[in-house]
Amino acid sequence: MNRFLMTLSVGVLALLATEWQTRGAAVQSPDGSPSHRFEELADGVYFAIGTGVMTVMSNSLVIINEDHVMLVDTSVTPAAARGLVAGIETLTDKPIKYVFNTHYHFDHAHGNQIFGDDVEIIGHDFVRTMLSSDVLAQRTHRSFTERMPDQLEQMRARVAGTSDAAERQELAAALRIQEAHWEALQETKPTPPNVTYSDTMRLVKGGREVQLHFPGPGHTGGDTLVFLPEERIVFTGDFFVGRPGGHGLPYMGDGYVEEWPSSLDRLKALEFDTIVPGHGLPFREREQIDHLQAYLRDLNRQVNALYAAGVSVEDAAGRVDLSAHVQHYGDRVVNADPRAVVRMYERLHIKMPR
């Protein structure tokens, strides 16, 4: 199994770090370049997405109320979070008073540390547990960071080795972004929520109602759906991502695939019109939830059968056939993500040790 606990390839890292573009107000990064753009989804509710000039990796939601601001997810590093906050200040001079973490993963919660004790950082109990642990040594985080020094050296070699001026300029710009991100990572001190909940939480603050829902185990053991009932908007983090601007399948390396489809029923029960995912663009097609449930159930059924038959984890991913879902997710999903299979075998070993 160990050889499957590998770090991500340069290509996968680049894919997941891609920042999607949308319209809206520009946000200034620490070096003066725009790090985010905002799109107003409802009165005072803004979808924030990276412009690509710095590594932010995930989306955020900004909720401007009568006398304060709420922020959903704090980005990948303190530097990215500062860029996001600087952008919020171009929209309003109201202070940020509430921060919500949709889950504990580094690309959504490692900006927490820039906020003081006067800000309530709210997350599920599981998020506090994970961010209070040695989360920097956790497999998912390491998969995105351990190989960065080697990747930077490869990028420097490519810059030095090209004779095309336009290509060199493009590669050098990408290298500067990655070098800045590597430097920003060194500052990171994971900071857990200072307010937690276990199932649901309702806040009515500054003239607006915000609900937090734990749907059940899914992407992690402590995902939060941030629901605005009046605006009929739900921010799903990585519990559910969609196809617009993305590939439709969330990362499953820390997931609970056997429980995830049932947990998605709780998302379905909310009365929303717009889904804002943790990656990609907002969308309205609720039927995409059905597609993910079908995919997860098929994956779970096949991996369970392979485990029961004694197939090794090294061989299992290549033997899973998910071609039935190509219509919704494309050819890249024919075989299972090895990281998902490793995680599923670990879960199965707990339940049915060999």
Question: Can you walk through the features of this model?
Answer:
The protein has 354 residues and is of the alpha/beta class. It is built from 12 helices and 13 strands. An 8-stranded mixed beta sheet has the order 1-2-3-4-5-6-7-8. Strands 9-10-11-12-13 form a 5-stranded mixed beta sheet, with no helix packed on it. It is globular and about 60 Å long. Helix 6 packs antiparallel against helix 7 (165-185) and helix 9 (287-308) packs across helix 12. It has helices spanning 10-17, 78-91, 106-109, 125-131, 139-145, 148-161, 165-185, 260-268, 287-308, 313-319, 326-329, 338-351; strands spanning 26-28, 34-42, 45-50, 60-64, 69-72, 96-100, 120-124, 195-197, 200-205, 208-213, 225-228, 233-237, 274-277. Helix 3 links the parallel strand 6 and strand 7 (120-124). Mean pLDDT is 90; it is low at 1-30.
